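CO-FOLDING WORKSHEET

Operator: S.A.
Ligand of interest: adenosine-5'-triphosphate
Run index: 328
Mode: holo prediction, single chain
Checklist:
[x] sequence pasted
[x] SMILES validated
[ ] output reviewed
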Amino acid sequence: MTRADERPGGQRVPPPVRRLPLTGGEATVVDAVDPAEQPTTVLPGGAGDATGAAGASGGGASRFVSAPRRRIGSASIAVDRMQVEELSIAYGSKLAVDSVSLPIRQGEVLALIGPSGCGKTTLLRSLNRLTELTKTASMKGRIVLDGEDIATLEPTALRRRVTMVFQQPNPFPMSVFDNVAYVLREQASRRPRKAALQTAVRSALARAGLLDEVVADLAHPALRLSGGQQQRLCIARALAVDPEVLLLDEPCSALDPQSTQVIEQLIVQLREQVAVVIVTHNLQQAYRIADRVAFMYLGELVEYGPADQIFGAPREQRTREYVSGGFG
Ligand SMILES: Nc1ncnc2c1ncn2[C@@H]1O[C@H](COP(=O)(O)OP(=O)(O)OP(=O)(O)O)[C@@H](O)[C@H]1O
Ligand SMILES: [Mg+2]
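OUTPUT RECEIVED:
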């Protein structure tokens, strides 16, 4: 496995282009481009590009147009929260994750990318021990959360510290208020007082960037919200228990471009308070919001590093081909 902060081994690879719309918030420009390079291909950008394809012609990452990378806000110093150590997961005799090691840090968004079936969801689900709910699944290696092996933690307690949002928004068939109140009541040792509950529900909705849109009618049925609002409600639910790590499995794949953009901005803001791991097929999205990227292929972690490295100067040939749209 490659290490995050090493420089590419002498070989210069021109960076891919990400032409990014800048919407709201302060923008930091991260220029990962060598001006001496003379690239020629432009990749499409925009939050609406949910195709997952990088969009370059199939000629690999050898020809690109340079463009600055823009990101909303800037993270504070990153702190290690989880450590994945030589993790292997098999379903029966089929290996889905093959000896993967990587850190997960608060202050950073980590994007897991790779073609379908390469083990992204399996890796993500193992972080809060959801994989073990699959009878055929077996695991080797270790996952540590704040110094403790998660295998030694009580699963429900772990799943409050490491919460997950799924691809399809799945609000409970109850009011907006009760969706969030439900998880708060469930985790409380005694029934929370009404006023405390009101405050906590509003706070979670605000953190998920949804409060303004729903505050006039918190009794509104959650299933009648738009898809983007439902997904933010699910994020509010996941945040209500004050987790240390937030896992997102393709959270925008069922959403329209506008909702995608709102959720991307939210994710970037959230990384200050919680370590964020997102699985995405949308390379533009990974480029826009990730600080670190892990590229997986056939269960292996092919390359892990800063987003600028993975998209701008990948060290591995397979990464180069994947981020340039060569396969996947
Ligand atoms: N419950 C299961 N039982 C058996 N095999 C499974 C199970 N879940 C996943 N697999 C297999 O494990 C491998 C990795 O699957 P996983 O869902 O983790 O991939 P992924 O990278 O998330 O794919 P996608 O991008 O399509 O969501 C695949 O070969 C898949 O068929
Ligand atoms: Mg998946």
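REVIEW:
Residues 1-70 have pLDDT under 50 and may be disordered.
The longest helix spans residues 194-207.
[x] output reviewed
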